[in-house]
User: Fold this.
Amino acid sequence: MSVRFPTTAAGRAPGDHLCWPYRGVDELVTATREYVAEGLARHELVTYVELGPTGMHQALLSDVAEVGRPAGAGRPVLAPLTAGAPLPTGTDPTVQLIEMTRSAVAEGYSGLRVITDATAQVRTTEGRADWARSEHLIDAFSVEHPVTALCCYDVDELGEASVTALACLHSLTRADSSPFLLRAAGGGTLALSGEVDVLSAEDLQAAMVPIGPSLSDPVVVEVSDLDFIDHGGLVALERAGRALDLRVRLVGASRATGWLVGTLGLAHVSADGSR
Amino acid sequence: MTAPTALRPAAHHDLVLHEGTAQLVDLMVPYVRDGAAAGDHVLVVGEADFVDAVLAAVPGAHGVRCAGSERYPGRELRLFRGVRDDLVDAHVRVRLVNQMPVMTVHQWYEWRRYEAAANVFLDPHSVWGACAYDTSAMAPDVLADLRASHSGVRSADGHLPSDHVPDLGRLVEGYLDLPPHPVEATRPVLELADPTPAAARHAVEDLATRCGLPEDAAESAVLAASETVTNGWLHGRAPVSLRAWAGPGRLTVTVSDTGRGAHPLVGLLPARPESLSGRGMWMLHQLVGDISHRHDDAGYTVRFSVDGATGAA
Assistant:
């Protein structure tokens, strides 16, 4: 399995934006323990951002702060900018991240390491669409700043399909939570990795639509880390491009992908070069 | 699977029967010359010696030179459609002359489907076709099929009507009731029961690497395995099974399900531009030259083989 589909929450570095679907509190605590311990060891400011009234922060902070905490390292803190309630629709979460990152660096930390449970943010269809855009903005922000983010989602509450739709908008996701990732790659470009086939094509199209307003025409999609895409995935990009009135330029496509694009005769998708 | 559109009258889909290139040139030059004189766009396809001889006799004609091993039924249908589509607005009629490759009986099963599919887009007002077969290399039973799919026969005996079956459904009935390919009687190196498309891709990619396929060919095999397994799940009936045979530089894969199978012209007629259904198999017929479909009491099987020559082109 690719490094973009890890099986543990540890092993993270600044720039990583990891989705962690979980089933039950034990899975959540296990992941956050190792993630927090790693951040404290690296002298990062470790912050729990509570987006909903989960009541988890006390358990997480008291538990993970004491487990594996290196001597002399700081404790994780509750983010001061959250009030334990879902963010209003349309909120740009990077506004908070910018301030938190600046403060962390100013205080001498090597970076900011965020944990959040976004379950409460995505309980409704409208909430999911809005938060999908937020995930993309966080992804784009973390590419260019010393930020590491762990986004947890309760699969039992949300259902696998809902979580998959959000998991694919991270730079990494827990193995088996999405077959592909559509991540920010800096400079307003995207990167598509993993595998997209007819069965996951609709998920790719659905992932493109909410982040569309953040993209500029033509949107460059780096695909050199893409293991597989078939006509279904390319038609999904075509449909998304048409819906968003964007041209989609695939960069680093394999010879087969370039051939597929040309043979399909797509109007909104093109492929530059081949690997 | 998407059913093709209704058959239009194909008044000019001629079967050309010849015994060798020299005789074929003699038969075709007047046909090509008549087309050029009528202002038709004439396209001559075949082995270089045949194409060169015809073009030398009729300088205004166009040619595509290709060896028999490079011939894909799906690609040729796409080529001819493209020529037609480029000229339809100019109201220029297209006259196609195709020297058909020498083929094995299993290859003939695919070219037989090609000949039927050609009837769907040939049009007396815009596209005429002449398909030339060398009778000295023709397998038994082939002639009857050819006479059924063509409207006329050109040979040393002149230009005569054929035994054309104008109803497409009746013409292609039984086209997929075929015996297994001989390789299917041997022991496969890989068997997957009810694989997901992803599992099929990973297993075939591994096998393609182990039997030394070039990257392009391996990618083609992976695409084909994914598409056929997906089709088995979406359009067929479980269980879906994948079997594979590997030789030096060559990989053969079959994907079977227990369903009733596809339309006899599956993969040869393009779907609507944004339709997913039917589009994948059409793509495979552009990508893989050696691909076949068959149906029997046990269900439906797609077989494809890739080697170093297979790949995006």
Notes: Residues 1-10 of chain B have pLDDT under 50 and may be disordered. The radius of gyration of chain B is 20 Å. Chain B touches chain A at residues 197-198, 201, 215-216, 219-220, 222-223, 226-227, 230, 234, 273-274, 276, 279-280, 283, 286-287, 311-313 (CB under 8 Å).
